[in-house]
Specification:
single chain; 90 residues; mainly beta; 4-stranded antiparallel β-sheet
Length: 90
Amino acid sequence: DDADNAQPMWHEDTIYSLSDRADDKKVNLWAYDTKKKKSHQVTHFKEFDCHFPGLGPTDIVIENGGRLYVVELASEKLTEVDIRVVTDRA
């Protein structure tokens, strides 16, 4: 296809990657089931593209719009990471 597919990550029977294959051409996280031979969109960001995915044992961390998100692989639930920068400057 004409989609830009990048940064594949293998977890069990699924290959996760960033792709702009949806109609809106935004880069989101996609999953390809190697047994069923089917793809589906995992994240559905509309304003910004996803970047910098990192696969761990049970989840993937991605960046979108300057924010970090964790995608739990078992449920594909998306949770924003609460980041607080603490400083001693007044």
